[in-house]
Specification:
The structure is a homodimer. Chain A is α+β, with helices and mostly antiparallel strands. Helices cover 56% and strands 12% of the residues of chain A. Chains A and B meet through helix 6, helix 7, helix 8, helix 9 and helix 10 of A and helix 6, helix 7, helix 8, helix 9 and helix 10 of B.
């Protein structure tokens, strides 16, 4: 049975020593997040995740969700009680606006807590993650009446949210969608159509479910410019917020899928369901992207989360499992065999995962702080810079953290040998659950194309130039710090590869866009490796400072950071040379075959 | 519902045009394998796999195997009838010795047919693969009486075989095993112990099951030098070959696992079961390795097989699924969208898989031909050279083909977007089934260590030097062939990386074996990339010759080979530079952390 321990100390190191959260105290909600409060909140979240959610993870996988003949859906045993504890703890709304019942704390707190939730039980966490996404979309695009009606119960978790985009014939290409909305004299709409892959579409955890649905208003233009966003509650709320009659939306079936069985992934049938327009007509995709960008960061966190919990269990197993002897002679001659942690290949596996996890967590914290700046800063320039950063990094976080998170779950499973292939170990569940994160909220190929095709060139390359300047600034500033040189050298080289790849696209993609498309995935991962390398040097600098200042009981933990950083430079960064070479090989061999030859 | 089409034409190209199977006609069984007969056999195998086994693949996954209260096991619906067709076709024994009822055809034929079987239905194919392994072990190590008793019904498929190594506390480290054997006055033994992860341990397909079991004879030395191999039939055969009484071996439970649900993976309880020694006492590991080496080649084939069937279905989907528009403008403006095969990232995905599959198939054919030389050549030097090659390449085939095969199944699944995550698409089954191949018959970390720690240095490096000389010979010989230069350049560079990495181990691993351990997995994959690159240049040379000679209807297929080869050089080989860098970074950062810091 897998276990989980939330990495609270690692998070506190990031918040306090690396990113200096106190520097953001000018933003609303930050001053309230005093170091003591942050530590207390994370401690509570950790306890809930470790003791309540983690033991339910296998139950949820084994039992799954059940749709009954009346189209109602039951979640796995224990989920209802755990959900009650989640809402009692106020975890859904810790960063939500105070005026609607949230706690108004920094968004970075939510991302951190979401990592813990997803490590402990990803299928369970999705119920609240979707709700948070729907809250964001309604908060930004909803009318004052809609906000007053929907946000308080959603922030409290009494009502949950969903996002309804995909139809059987269109996922990525939403311009093809067919669900239609017919205007009614009272200003409402009647929505008809079938949506698939709707996470948390129907369940028994909350008293109401608020569906955000993309549909085309009768007579609207074809393509993406004719899509509108609607709010379609399962139960129509009365003006006083109590629940009225059942709306014409129901779960047609639950998808049988590879993993996240504890989350009900539904086919949702809209049969003249009553809905109300959110934001402007025909601007629905725009509104949905508010939700999607937050969701993409959240999905990146899921990749990290599965990688983290898989690491923890693999490391524990490697320290316990006695098998074979160290290459350099028995380390525990009195035992039947050495624990497999003595083997370099097992350590290589574990350190590959860990050196990703810690840097990815830094990347998430760093990005979430920028999200706070976007949403809370008064200064236009600061907001713009942060928004540039978010736009650039969203596809990198989503694509790289989920691809690597999945690969890491696979590697962690491998540490268990044959036992990792059994259900009992729980390791194969991490693999199956992690797999979806590479797909939903925009498959990773789409993330790569978003990065290369849209984000790089946006505003004359302002965002990417700003990031390059930041990295270069760090390298220059620390060029004389001897202790950092072993790390800065490899980072500088990989950063050079990233700059060359970027230049290559500028020179070769305009004339032939396929050159960008063929190199997009490699570029996204090259970008990710450099960002994570940059996170590592920032962590190393902070750790070295802290060690120099006398780190009290944290010496071993900080020393381990230095080793993991060194491993990252030795073993992860060399990949960037290969990525650059692949990008520079261009699209010729990729595009040469006629379609029928595949 | 996934489909499958056996790559018969590709195999014929390899046998006839690349490896010139007629050159082996001096070996027993080869002359009989005339081109016409080979084509007919492959056609029959293809038909059986495509029409009978492939449609059963999802059935097997969904239904799994069932253990009943009387410890009997039922296989999924349809498996019994399919198995009857398998034995009626004589497929288990096509390469088995004629004297025991086999057809005596080259072993390469068996490996090719096994690829087809495993693509169509890996869980089903394992019943016969295990039997083939047991046949090999008994043929080499069994007494004349044992061979006469067991081989004919096993070759006919009336009886199946298993291999029983793993116990709960020991898998890789067999020296720890506890199953014991007590000698009886009649020369038999009584075997007692519990074995886990026993594929095909109990089922309803055959009338008897022949278990090959590792156990320790009472009083034998501790460790691997006290392990013996026993044959323990489920039903004790009477001298006339009819079945006698039930032996004391039974299935305690079926493992719940991630995939290959159609195969019964059993906990087997030996409770004073009657068995007979196979080969010499205390030399059981040696005998089992006869079985393991063949099995490792076979498991490598499973990796290729899953990659192939996943490719075929992803390519078909990419040509059908309409989503978005080509980056260079709509290709099918009259349709709602272009098929996703227009997108460079989808093509990159497909070509990454395909350029592996075709080269991996060449590698399998090439290696299986060497296996034939080992077992059939009269010339000692030829046998020795082939045996060197087999020893060196076995871990590479097993490790690289299964790691990459799994990664490819994941990539193919990704082409389907959200649909790939559903059970319905069948793509996620390929991923779950492929996953086991990285683990069983020696986890891939063990393969890497076998390569680096044992095979490289064996006999003064004779095997690896011979392979290097062969590659260098090819490069030199074709240095003036203009049409090959675009391929030979990248291969030469990667080959240089492999030579440097080998040299680095020679200089750094003796003083510190952890330097070999830390680089072993990278080295195995570096080796694999170079071998597959070498396979590609051989295929390109053959294709170019054939095209020059006028290829009749095969022009498009051969042109596609040239493109896939070019893609391999552009996109796959750059990785070798990164692998070399990782290897040369040594073990320092890998070994620095104390165990408790993980």
């Amino acid at each position: 049975m897998p276990t989980y321990k939330a990495p609270v100390e690692d998070v506190l190191f990031l918040l306090n020593d690396v990113f200096h959260i106190e520097r953001y105290n000018n933003l609303p909600g930050f001053a309230e997040a005093s170091p003591d409060l942050v530590e207390a909140i994370l401690g509570e979240a950790a306890k809930f995740c470790e003791e309540v959610l983690s033991p339910l993870n296998r139950v949820g996988d084994a039992e799954g969700c059940t749709r009954h003949d009346d189209a109602s859906v039951t979640t796995p045993k224990g989920f209802k009680e755990a959900y009650r504890q989640l809402t009692d703890g106020g975890w859904i709304g810790i960063s939500a606006p105070v005026e609607f019942g949230g706690q108004g704390l920094p968004a970075v707190m939510t991302e951190i807590v979401n990592e813990f939730l997803c490590s402990a039980n990803m299928a369970f966490a999705m119920y609240s993650l979707l709700t948070q996404g729907a809250i964001s979309a309604l908060y930004v695009h909803g009318s004052p009446e809609q906000k007053a009606m929907y946000l308080p119960p959603m922030i409290a978790g009494k009502w949950t949210g969903t996002m309804n985009l995909t139809e059987a014939h269109c996922g990525t290409d939403l311009g093809q969608l067919r669900s239609k909305a017919v205007a009614q004299p009272d200003g409402s709409y009647r929505i008809t159509g079938t949506k698939i892959f709707i996470s948390a579409g129907e369940h028994d955890l909350a008293e109401n479910i608020v569906h955000l649905v993309l549909a085309r208003i009768e007579g609207a233009p074809a393509g993406v410019k004719g899509i509108s966003l609607f709010v379609v509650p399962k139960f129509l709320p009365n003006p006083d917020g109590t629940l009225g009659k059942r709306n014409g939306v129901s779960c047609g079936s639950i998808e049988e899928k590879m993993g996240i069985h504890g989350n009900s992934t539904c086919v949702m049938n809209y049969d003249g369901a009553i809905g109300w327009l959110v934001g402007e007509a025909n601007r629905g995709l725009n509104a949905m992207f508010t939700m999607m960008n937050g969701a993409r960061l959240g999905v990146g966190v899921q990749g990290l989360a599965q990688s983290e919990v898989a690491y923890q269990n693999a490391a524990a197993y490697a320290k316990e499992r006695l098998q074979g002897r160290s290459l350099s002679g028995a380390k525990f001659p009195d035992k039947a065999a050495d624990p497999i942690i003595v083997h370099p290949d097992v350590r290589r596996t574990l350190l590959s995962i860990r050196s990703f996890n810690e840097a990815a967590r830094a990347f998430v914290v760093c990005t979430a702080l920028q999200a706070d700046v976007v949403h809370r800063a008064e200064d236009d320039a600061a907001r713009r810079t942060a928004d540039d950063y978010m736009g650039l990094m969203t596809p990198v976080i989503k694509g790289v953290l989920t691809d690597t998170g999945f690969a890491n779950a696979v590697m962690a499973q491998q540490v268990f040998g044959g036992h990792g292939y059994t259900r009992e170990s729980g390791m194969e569940q991490f693999v199956r659950d992690a797999r979806i994160a590479m797909i939903y909220e925009g498959a990773n190929g789409i993330q790569a194309l978003d990065l290369v095709g849209r984000k790089l060139g946006k505003d004359g390359g302002r965002a990417v130039m700003a990031f390059f300047a930041e990295v270069k600034g760090f390298l220059d500033e620390h060029a004389e710090v001897q202790a950092l040189q072993p790390h800065l050298g490899p980072l500088g080289e990989s950063f050079g590869h990233l700059q060359q790849a970027t230049m290559w696209f500028m020179q070769n993609a305009l004339s032939n866009p396929d050159n960008a498309g063929a190199g997009a995935t490699d570029y996204m991962h090259l970008f990710g490796l450099v960002v994570l390398g940059y996170m590592w040097v920032r962590m190393v600098a902070a750790a070295q400072q802290k060690l120099a200042a006398g780190a009290d009981g944290a010496t071993q933990r900080l020393d381990a950071k230095l080793v993991a950083a060194r491993f990252y430079m030795d073993r992860m960064l060399p990949e960037t040379a290969a990525q650059l070479a692949r990008i520079q090989s261009g699209a010729a061999s990729t595009m040469a075959l006629p379609a029928e030859a595949f």
